[in-house]
Amino acid sequence: MNVFLLDRKEIKEDVKRMEYFLTICGVLNEYLSDEILPNAVELLGIYGRMCINSFNILNGEMQAIGTGIYLAPSVIDHSCSPNAVATFDGFKLRIRVTQDLPKLDWSFIYISYIDLMNSKNHRKKELKERYYFDCNCPRCGSDEIDCYHYAARCPSCRNPITVRRGDKFPPCSCGSRLDSSFSKQFWSAADFSEQQLLLMQDTNYLDVCKLCLTKQEDLFHDLCLIRSKVLDAAFDSAVQLQLWESAIQYGLPLIHAYKLWYGNEHPLTAILLLKIFKIMLLVSPNDDSAALKYYQEAAKIIELTHGKGSMFYQQDVKSLIRDVK
Ligand SMILES: [Zn+2]
Ligand SMILES: [Zn+2]
């Protein structure tokens, strides 16, 4: 006999989901007549598909503009190092492969269901809670990218040193050893930054980001996950405040971080490059030579992720370069 054991947290999550479902049923009952309202079992089926198969509908700049249920792409498995991306052309969802495949076989095509700029534990937890599976993708099985979760910057060679909570700081491959005061300052800055990132979930505050970055200075490698997240928040709020020089200061190191966490051929990496291109033109309108290389890199990725025929490429990306010329 199979006995399924759910821990208390899992039961709590299921109860929460069921409560939410009952609330939706209540609202539907109020607004729809009995004739058109599916019965409770059918409704539960629809709700289940909503939980598992809903995609955020994104505009060209990868901002969510709605939610839709797309059943066909749900045959595509998840990987934290995907070889395909889901992009939208209006409401049409397109799955585009970003790496060469020997032949078209859907069982070897993977997209990511979640935000990839997160630690292994965070990703695994989110996938388990939202999609009910344990991720065993190559990225979750290796430390190649996740070694940057906590990465100090060696004061001698400036290379990253992977550090883990509760462990002693290992020596750098160059031979340098970091003393206990470095380690104490590192964890204090890490705790502070993680706390602030949690508080800033919905709104990024530039002064808070600046404070985090100052505390991290000379201690954190730029690719360290926490620093990447703070740089991302700082870039975002500098753009909101139209502080273009600051946006470039935070945006440039962020390019490397995006390439690490999201991948070279990811729509978000392309959008970041496009934003930097636009900002550079605002800062130095008479010299577009530095900006152009970011545009070219972005356009190449968008050709792959959205396609040359997509509305976004034709209307938004190509028009930018016409404006420059
Ligand atoms: Zn994974
Ligand atoms: Zn070193």
Automatic annotation (TrEMBL):
Q: Which domain of life is it from?
A: Eukaryota
InterPro entries on file: H3K4_H4K5_MeTrfase (IPR050869), SET_dom_sf (IPR046341), TPR-like_helical_dom_sf (IPR011990)
Organism annotation: Daphnia magna
Identification of the protein by name: SET domain-containing protein
